[in-house]
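Before drawing any conclusions, I needed to go through one protein's amino acid sequence and its backbone structure tokens, quoted below without any editing.
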Amino acid sequence: MAEPEQSIFNFNAYSPAEIGEAVETLGVKKTNLPFLASFMLSMVAGGGIGLGALYYNIVASDAGLGFAATRVLGGLVFSLGLALVLVGGAELFTGNNMIVMAWASGKVSTRQMLRNWVIVYIGNFVGSMGLVVLVFFSHHMDMNGGRVGLSILNTAVAKISPDAVTLFFKGILCNLLVCWAVWLAYAGRSVTDKIIALILPISAFVAAGFDHCVANMYFLPLAWLLARVC
């Protein structure tokens, strides 16, 4: 008797063991990408995270929202950034920190891992700066009577005000949640699964005021440009 055909639809999430294996396999793939492909995909990720930051500032510019509503809703819309990165297959420095799993299992060398991180970090910065220029000349900051621009300035001030030790630990906490978001997204079998899985961890780090280094590549240069013009 022929075995029944297995359904192509499977609503079960991948197991933690399967996710771990996928993360290690992807880590090897990422470190073996040619320089140009890695750099270009990194630029895409920098711009993608910047678009999430742009979306956040629209929410933050609404003075009618309370503190918690602004933080939580702002975090939800900021999730756009990681959704663009994961679904689009871009290279994000904070997510690529998970290559350390492939390194720990001996599948990639220290040199390969560091090479990837350097290329991706610089590529993220270049992509973020490209978006900053586009947004600046689009006069997006004039929305809501100029309050969007004010929100960008206030966000930047809040990010540079803490001391170095505080910023260091805020960065660690941010990346803890980013890596959780990526891990949970890898558990999904569809685009919808992946996006839903990443929303809560990403919105949590934004709501808590933690610092994402790539998002800061958008916030801080744009605020600097605004301060020069104002």
User: Anything to note?
Assistant: Confidence is low (pLDDT under 50) at residues 1-9. The two ends are 78 Å apart (CA to CA).
